Amino acid sequence: MSCLLDPPCLALAACALLTALVWFVRDSLKISDIDQKYVFITGCDSGFGNQLAKQLDRQGFRVIAACLTEKGAAELKTSATPRLKTVLLNVVDGKSIDEAVVFVKAEVGEEGLWGLVNNAGILLALPPTDWIQIESFRKVIDVNLLGTIEVTLKFLPLVKKARGRIVNVSSIMGRLAFGGGGYCISKFGVESFSDTLRKDMKHFDIKVSIIEPGFFKTQITNVQPIEKELRRLWSALTPEIKSSYGTDYIDRYLKAQNTSMNLLLSSKTSHVTDCMQHALTAKYPRTRYGAGWDAKLLWLPLSYLPTALTDRVIRGLLPDPAESGVTATRHSQQQEPR
């Protein structure tokens, strides 16, 4: 107790308190002239992008929402002000991106583009790696990583003109690899691309932020399509691979996945869109935003711990396979008398 009253301890506590206060004040400072600033958001048919478009529209931003489908664009317009504009965009189609650039350029004029939010993304499933063909890797990486890169490169001149912001949606799975397939790979790539972009654009006064959501209830985390994809992959496996996992593995896998989803998925998607809004409106936006209780309290701290420990925790979310055929054969050979 006496240590707490010593001058060095008191000085250290005062410095910590002052640092926290300065950070809080600095973090709360906002930009001005929101009604004159344009923001372009990808993936606005549903989920985070759809919610962010409406949220920023209510704040007074001039929002240009990119949707994959005409239906998504029409539905978004019905719940927004006339100020919000929509454009069709497929982030894996270079021509579609070029057409969106032309549309946005005509809208923003000499003002340039204040905010570019790369939100579009897909998640097929997170199966064991040897269940997947290379085409599945390509499909996810093309959308989540290469789509983000190409959209950024083509819109960058407009962002430079406004000395604006780029907000890239990664995931907690850009810090920790939870399963096979292209999703985690793509999000690790988004992290790396964003870090490089941030350093390269600092000279031009462009700020780059990364959003790292935990598990939220959105269209891409809908359990039914994920389960359907996992069963499709399982049915296409060779008998040898199925045997190595065990004939009942798919049922145990799906049961464990549903349990984890029910435990972790949050419906409070505003936690993510509020982070996006802060990255666009704060005078000093953060480099990274962990969104969701699980991201802040579980996954981000876990990502700093020894790999052996993080592997053990993540493995604990899913069942272990049966002993592989190769291992079983080795064991039987070792037991044969010579």
Structure write-up:
With 338 residues, this protein is α/β, with parallel strands linked by helices. 57% of the residues lie in helices and 10% in strands. It contains 14 helices and 7 strands.
Short description:
With 338 residues, this protein is of the alpha/beta class. The protein has 14 helices and seven strands.
Keywords:
alpha/beta; about 350 residues; single chain; 14 helices; globular; 7-stranded parallel β-sheet
Write the layout of secondary structure elements.
Blueprint: H1 2-5, H2 7-28, E1 38-41, H3 47-59, E2 62-67, H4 70-78, E3 85-88, H5 94-108, E4 115-118, H6 134-162, E5 165-169, H7 182-201, E6 207-213, H8 223-235, H9 239-245, H10 249-264, H11 270-281, E7 288-291, H12 293-303, H13 307-315, H14 325-335
Helix pairs in contact: 3-11, 5-6, 6-7, 8-10
